[in-house]
Amino acid sequence: MQSLRGCNIFLTFIPVLCQQTELRMKQSYAKNSSYGYWKKLPLMASITGLLFAAGCKKHDYPVPPGEVNKVKHIVVIYLENHSFDNLYGSFAGANGLSDARARNIIQVDSNDKPYKFLPAIPGTSAFPTNLANNVFNIDQYVPNDQETPDVLHRYYQEQLQIDGGKMDKYALYNTSAGLSQGYYQTNLLPLIGVARQYTLCDNFYHSAFGGSFLNHMWLIASASPVFPGAPSSIVAKLDSKGNLITDGQVTPDGYVVNTSYTVNNPHPASASPATLVPNQTIPTIGDRLSEKKVSWAWYSGGWDSALAGHADPTFQFHHQPFAYFANYADGTQGRKDHLKDEKEFIAAAKAGTLPSVSFVKPLGINNEHPGYSDVENGESHTVELINDVLSGPNGKDVVIIVTYDENGGFWDHVAPPVIDKKWGPGTRVPTLIVGPFAKRGYVDHTEYETVSILSLIENRFDLKPLASRDKNANPLQNAFDFNLPQGGGHGK
Q1: N or C: at which end does the chain have fewer Cβ atoms within 10 angstroms?
Q2: 42: number of CA atoms within 13 Å, CB side?
Q3: What's the pLDDT at 485?
């Protein structure tokens, strides 16, 4: 058994019987070859495309058609602002820091010249001012149970940081400068026991360039919100070549890409009414689920207090994406039925009354966001949420997805795939797949992105895709084995 630091639970590792599992997957796939996403995959492409290099397995096969219907509950826990290398760079079997090459590590200045030392980290004396132009361990200066400064994560800046896949300008386009190159010791993470027991995805990217606001929108809508006629004061200005002159919340063609607040409640009392984002009418995953009468809810830490007008100091108004939509606006039945406080999720998990799909957004202090949260506290809270679900009556048929909205400005050595030059995806982020159907002790190298979560939900509940990105995204198919022994492997 392994004790998880910061919580009072124990997780038992369940080994994978490699050859037997492989044979079962082959046989089951051969018998069931036409359903949803998997119907579109040619057999050889499906098999060869899912080979991987971690653990004891040598081959992997798509989830057998129809097997996904064994999943009765999907829980998405949406955390904040860490790249894969920043947290899991030293995870055994993963594509991590030891796989990085100097050309992807060394940071350069505005003239494309390598820095002698990383730019000094402002606003704190915890870090040396002569850090080598390399990655460095944050824990030796600031333990993971303490807060660090925030790191810049915005729409235009992330594209500049990625620098066409060179990954060499994270320190340059960053208000926290060299902090972008910091990483945490993986073996000290409270979630490490969960990651070792279940599936860790090391090729998962946040779907939209930029920060939390935009990526929350993509999590539920696979699209960017619009603000027709936005005040010129909040619109970004670009030159004739598309280079950024002045940053803003809204692009020149009317898309809201950086932190903005809804015209609905809750929003900060200090927000200018003219800058509040009007109600959106594009479809969301909530709409699709409701059309099929599939139960769902978005659970947010501190929601009830924020609605009552006394929001917790770390409550993040722009982390409530459904609140921006007309179907969940103030006074609607949709809001009453589907937007709830995290405490209701915990109660439902313990009672076995979870809806079919749950999105869980922890309160700021519990979400790992640098600047107002820390890694240890946020991950310990997440472990408690996982344990509440797996120890409850719904634990027997659940898939829990723990992922991060975006990289938070932290560097990663893997260049993201080019799918949509305007929108993304952005930098690689950690994602854990947990529960009785998740492969055990497995590192999944399959390419996924945030909207792969939507694709999974759509495939499971036979929903119409929201847009082309979620329609074409892999629905996490290589993370599951529906033939594993059930009934164990969760916290007690």
Answers
A1: N
A2: 4
A3: 78
* Separation CA 449–CA 456 (nearest Å): 11
439 pLDDT more than 80? yes
pLDDT tens per residue across span 84-120? 999 999 999 999 999 999 999 999 999 999 999 999 9
CA 51 to chain centre: 24
Please say if the pLDDT value at position 9 is more than 50: no
Q: Which residues, in sequence order, are CB contacts of 373 under 8 Å at separation 6+?
A: 80, 147, 314, 364, 365, 366, 367
Tokens 């200066």 belong to residue: 141
Distances (CA, A) of 320 to 255, 302, 312, 344, 476: 18, 11, 14, 16, 24
Residue 204: give the domain boundaries: 71-88+188-234+255-479
* pLDDT at residue 40 in the model: 37
- Tally of CA atoms within 13 A in the half-sphere of 169 that contains its CB: 17
Is 458 a member of any domain? Answer: yes
Helix intervals (H) in 172-293: 192-197, 212-221, 285-291
Closest by CA position to 340, among listed 318, 380, 385, 307: 307
| CATH code for position 387 | 3.40.720.10
Q: State mean pLDDT over 112-140.
A: 97
In a domain, 490, yes or no: no
Domain-located, residue 156: no
pTM score above 0.70:
yes
CB pairs under 8 A, 24+ apart, for 415-423? 415/104, 415/162, 415/165, 415/166, 415/167, 416/162, 416/165, 416/205, 417/205, 417/447, 418/165, 419/449, 419/469, 420/469, 423/207, 423/208, 423/209, 423/218, 423/224, 423/469
- The whole-angstrom separation of Cα 242 and Cα 250 is 14
Q: What is the predicted pLDDT for the residue at 484?
A: 83
Matching residue, tokens 């993370």: 479
Alpha-carbon distances of 28 from 31, 33, 369, 419, 482, rounded to whole Å: 5, 9, 42, 32, 10
* Number of separate domains in the chain: 1
> Under a CB-based contact definition with an 8 Å cutoff, are residues 222 and 464 in contact?
no
- Alpha-carbon gap, residue 235 to 254, rounded angstroms: 8
Rg (CA), the chain: 22
Phi, psi of 395 (to 5 degrees): -65, -20
Mean pLDDT over residues 219-233, rounded?
A: 98
CA dihedral 35, 39, 43, 44 (to 10 degrees): -140
In one letter, which amino acid is 373?
S
Separation CA 5–CA 20 (nearest Å): 34
Is the separation of the CB atoms in 201 and 414 below 8 Å? no
465 lies in some domain: yes
C-alpha to C-alpha distance for 200 and 251, rounded to whole angstroms: 35
Question: Between 26 and 75, whose confidence is greater?
Answer: 75
Instruction: State phi, psi for 480 to the nearest 5 degrees.
Output: -115, 150
Residues counted in the chain: 492
Q: How far is CA 254 from CA 66, 226, 232, 244, 250, in A?
A: 41, 6, 11, 15, 6
